[in-house]
User: What shape does this take?
Amino acid sequence: MTKKKFYAVAVGRVPGIYTDWPTAEAQIKGFAGAKFKGFAIRGEAEEWLHNPVYDRRPKDEKPEAEQRSVEIEPGQTGIAVYTDGGCINNPGPGGYGIVIVDGGMVRERSGGFRLTTNNRMELMACVVAFRELSGTEDTIILHSDSSYVVNGIEKGWARGWRARGWRKSDGQVALNADLWAELLKLCESLAVTFRWVKGHAGNSRNERCDTLATAAARGENLPADSGYEGKS
Assistant: This one.
């Protein structure tokens, strides 16, 4: 991937073109509605600055599946997703929280169930986020503090379970097959990479997801998690 050398800030503290990311970041970090993008060529940055539109690739130009796991560089158009999930007593009432950062816009989602597990809520957060982003052509990086989720995708465990009829390599049943199946299907149509982050370590987005998930788990009249209660 070509390294971005010019950062165009259309909406920020001081709009303009910057040649280093720290200076550009200072113009948009914490600035509501910031709009910016990175370029390899200055002329392209100047052109975009006059018409700051986030372009999407035509649907007939999707990269092949093996090319879809990519990284978002500073200033590059992309979507950052943060997720968390958990439940009280495990199993017990549970909830999930999601923060989506897309082009300077931030939106939050959450939900809860009356009886579920920690792992199911971690997975559900990813599924709900990707349902909402279904059809986007932008790069997505999902941040989760669940090794179960991140390793399941990035190390190919879930694909292996699916290939074996939702059985682990030792023959045992792979849990949460309903959510894994939907998550894999969603991932196959998106340019997404999963990134593990340490929980409760000062990451404001991750901590916000935790707050959303906890509040959802403590909600009233929560619906049933049919994928869990139906198999209990």
